[in-house]
Amino acid sequence: MIGDRLFGAAKGDEPADLLLRGARIVDVISGEIRQGDLAVAGGYIVGFGARKAEEIIDLKGKYLVPGLIDAHVHIESSQLSPAEFARAVLPHGTTCVIADPHEIANVLGLRGIRYMLRATESLPLRVFFMAPSCVPSSPLENAGAMLSAEEIKEVLSWDRVLGLGEVMNFPGVLSRDPEVWAKLEAAHGKPIDGHAPGLSGYELWAYRLAGPRTEHECTLLREAREKLRAGMHILIREGTTARNLSALIPLLSAHTAPFVHFCTDDRHP
């Protein structure tokens, strides 16, 4: 239930906390850009139009847009602490990230994931996590830690952990590797991120039905279309070295918008 303060501000009986006056409001629901005022109270938008407010900021025709959710990012790739990362991305409009901490997990295991959760608790940037599925990334690696299916299950129970991070071991999925499938089963009913570059045909359908429902590794439009048709959400990646925006942007339309998202994956200094 909403509180009296929030209800009163929405109804116009009490002043809002903030009024953003004279904005060009980009409404991504209605598809409009309209001139007007927007009121905020208690961290919520409580209405449009002129009304009383504790603080008024005149935007003088500047665009007011929703914050970007970066749908898949490894904060560690930036070589910044989470606080400094937030300081870098917030001024550019990113207000929320879905982070996969598999780099720090490959070094410190559960201790590294706990650190990332603690370090993002009170930031102005909203940070959610996916439990790293591939620690180590490959059986051939000499990693600093290993995460079993049981430990993944524990991580999935923590606050702000939404689901299972990118399942890079798609050969293990396709060969029914017991450890890989134990992790998929631990995340049953939760979001599972995919990572299967070039996968197509029967193998793509088998991988998708095993649980992964996003893909950020598409580099070609035809690959992205096939994966979209198989029921996957496509994360268009524009990182430091992997830049797929120009190749994949034709995928985005009014029909596909609910299934096409944006991510950076890795941003290096």
List keywords for this structure.
five-stranded parallel beta sheet, 10 helices, alpha/beta, TIM Barrel, 269 residues, single chain, Urease, subunit C, domain 1, globular
Task: Please describe the biggest sheet, giving its number of strands, its sense, and whether it closes into a barrel.
Answer: 5 strands, mixed
CATH class of the largest domain: Alpha Beta
Give the integer mean of the pLDDT values: 96
Total helical segments = 10
SSE succession? HEEEEEEHEHHEHEHHEHEHEHE
How many beta-strand elements?
A: 13
Helix- and strand-based class?
A: alpha/beta
- First-residue to last-residue Cα separation: 44 Å
Binned, the helix content reads 25-40%
Proportion of residues in extended strands:
25-35%
Classified in CATH, the superfamily of the largest domain is Metal-dependent hydrolases
- Rg (C-alpha, Å): 21 Å
The parts where pLDDT drops under 50 for at least 5 residues are none
Anisotropy-based shape: globular
> What is the multimeric organization of the chains shown?
single chain
The domain count comes to 2
In CATH terms, what is the fold-level topology of the largest domain? TIM Barrel
